[in-house]
Specification:
Length: about 80
Amino acid sequence: MPSTVIRRFAWRAAEQALDVEFVTGRVYRYHGVPEEVARAMRGSFSRGAFFNRAIRDRYPHERLGGWPPEDEATAPVR
């Protein structure tokens, strides 16, 4: 189901990080997010609710200037 809050997200194995782009256009990288948490987010009914419960305020993060270039290694979350 499409999220009304999150436009897209990608888990980056090399950095153990989750990139999240919100519908507002803001992009954040959450550090130290385990792959299983990213997978659980992919499978959740409400990604926004999952994000608020399991990621927001639990992992250090930084705001990015935009979505990272596609040539960065991005592991699809299955």
